[in-house]
Amino acid sequence: MMNWQHDRRGRKGLLRRSILKGVVALGVATLLMASYAGPASAQSLIDKIKSGETIRIGFSNEMPWAYPGQNGEPFGFVNKMAIDLLKKLGATKIEPVVTDWGSLVPGLQAGRFDIITGGMFITPERCRNVLFSEPLGKFGGALLVAKGNPENLHSYEDVRDKGLVFTAASGWLAIKAAKDIGIPDDKIMEVAGTTEVVQAVKVGRAAAAGGDYLTLTKYIDENSAVELAHPFQDPLPLGYPALAFLPDQQDTVDAFNAALKEYAGSAQMMEAVSKYGYTEKQLPQGGKTTAELCRG
Known about the structure:
Layout (H helix, E strand, L loop, with lengths): L1 H40 L3 H6 L4 E5 L7 E2 L5 E2 L1 H12 L5 E5 L5 H6 L5 E7 L2 H4 L3 E2 L8 E6 L9 H6 L4 E4 L3 H9 L6 E4 L2 H9 L5 E5 H8 L5 E3 L12 E5 L4 H14 L3 H7 L16 H6 L1
Parallel strand pairs: 1-4, 1-5, 8-9, 8-10
Antiparallel strand pairs: 2-3, 5-12, 6-12, 7-10, 7-11
């Protein structure tokens, strides 16, 4: 009897183990099927555009690239270009989403918006997190200083050698350039955006600020307490801004690139962007491609 009871318990144990193995196997198979089915069934952004769904564009307050109006409407030449391209692709509903510069990529990844239109330059580091369109233009940098350039600054090296404070917005390429050149961390002031950059130089918290020429020019036009250093030895190569998408949106990027090829330099585009300071000198033709910029 003892032997029979022991055998029965053993058989029940085997049966339970067999059932558990079957459940686990079924669960694994289900997960695998879901992982394969997910991307195939996920709606792409170009499909959302064609179906008339609302397309959300994300940007920060960066004049004249992309910035909100008094009622939150999207202004700036990158926003204008993005909206024109979206309309060419059939979009009828566009919603602006404003955030700070450092939250643009995380916001895209979290699904807060569908496209980054903030004038983000293409870099190898950013290419690892987002998928860029072809460039929307090419732009050089500038050095912002107090009126009259009292410290006689004409390069990042000048700021470094004189032990002065340098400022730029968090996430700007100027921060990395300053560190690469050797400006100590305790002499680099990272701030939220362009308004704070200009204010830091204006009140003397920083001796100089790095940024792109177009942005800083826009702000000095409105502030007589600061100016751009002339001449200026730019430590950075030309910057190429583009629209940024999630990495799984290659079909959407292809569609945008096809539309951009016809749009870039057209009379429609130049009429739309010239009021923001964009000229034919900034057109992307003859510059680098996104593939080249992502390789570094």
